[in-house]
Amino acid sequence: MEWNKKWFRWGFSFLIFLIVVSGALGIIHEGHAGATESMFLHRYVGVQSCEACHSSGLLGRQFQAWKSSPHSRAFLDLSSREALDIGKRLGVSDPKTSQRCLSCHVTAPNAALPEAVSTFRMKDGVQCESCHGPGEDYTHYSVMIDPKKAREAGLVIHPDKKTCLTCHNPSSPTYKGFDEKTAMSQIAHPLPPAMSEKFGSSLTGGAP
Ligand code: HEC
Ligand code: HEC
Ligand code: HEC
Ligand code: HEC
């Protein structure tokens, strides 16, 4: 137990060190230039911004869980034989450029508009921010570790069934129903117990 904690503390400090260095190099966040002209409250930054921290074992490798889920392939799958067949049936000649498909298969279907920063990539499909909210203002370390600040900056800590149903609904040409319990367990990517041990209920704001 003691040993575990020591490792956790050491590893965590190292993680923070990496974050500070990459932050200084401008890798994590591209800055606020132009944000004031944006009609959007917060903009999408793209999954690689989250990857910088959330691929770490200390945080629970949420990036890897997402990468191996169908959500990471949602855009690429629009080029499949099956997608072309579905498109043909609905009079859509190129699913990967049609809003009728992109609306559910990518995080920001209008990425050309100022709703996303330049690091955002459509090809990454349904990304973290589809469920957790656009990350421009909460991906900084000092905000991220403070659940209250993070919520105020747009982070949705506990997405629920309502979030899923914005895409998992009968408007999907392949819809066969949505079972919340099964679907949630198929994409589960919790923080490790060590995190909740360290931060206690401050981590979840007391919610279950
Ligand atoms: C600078 C590093 C860093 C970046 C970048 C980052 N996170 Fe985090 N995130 C953390 C840390 C550390 C925690 C641990 C929670 C805490 O300390 O309260 C966390 C916690 C979270 C939580 C749970 C919050 C809670 O209070 O339970 C969510 C959800 C989350 N991050 C989503 C994201 C998403 C989505 C992105 C990308 C848009 C992202 N994070 C980018 C470091 C980061
Ligand atoms: C309302 C949201 C929505 C729209 C619009 C939508 N999809 Fe999907 N798509 C989904 C969801 C959710 C799934 C996962 C399976 C399901 O529940 O339908 C999916 C799955 C798929 C799959 C994989 C099927 C499988 O067997 O898993 C293909 C291919 C696909 N969609 C193509 C398309 C094409 C082509 C269009 C445009 C003509 C389109 N989708 C429009 C939400 C949508
Ligand atoms: C399809 C929706 C969806 C996507 C995509 C998604 N998440 Fe989540 N995330 C959830 C749900 C649902 C939960 C569970 C919320 C709860 O505990 O009530 C969750 C939980 C988390 C937690 C733990 C929160 C806690 O306090 O226990 C973190 C951290 C997190 N997500 C980060 C990420 C990151 C980083 C990505 C992208 C690499 C991502 N998520 C992609 C829906 C999503
Ligand atoms: C922005 C739209 C969007 C949201 C929000 C979303 N999904 Fe999905 N989901 C999709 C698409 C599109 C696919 C199909 C991807 C593919 O196979 O190409 C999919 C596939 C899945 C699959 C694979 C099984 C299947 O039905 O094909 C599961 C499980 C899943 N989603 C769970 C969830 C859960 C749980 C939530 C809510 C926490 C959620 N999704 C929110 C768009 C979404």
TrEMBL record:
Pfam annotation, one family: Cytochrome_C554
InterPro entries given in the database record: Cyt_c-552/4 (IPR023155), Multihaem_cyt_sf (IPR036280)
Domain of life: Bacteria
Domain Cytochrome c-552/4: 49-133
Name of the protein in question: Putative cytochrome c-554
Species the sequence originates in: Leptospirillum ferrooxidans (strain C2-3)
Phylogenetic placement of the source organism: Bacteria, Pseudomonadati, Nitrospirota, Nitrospiria, Nitrospirales
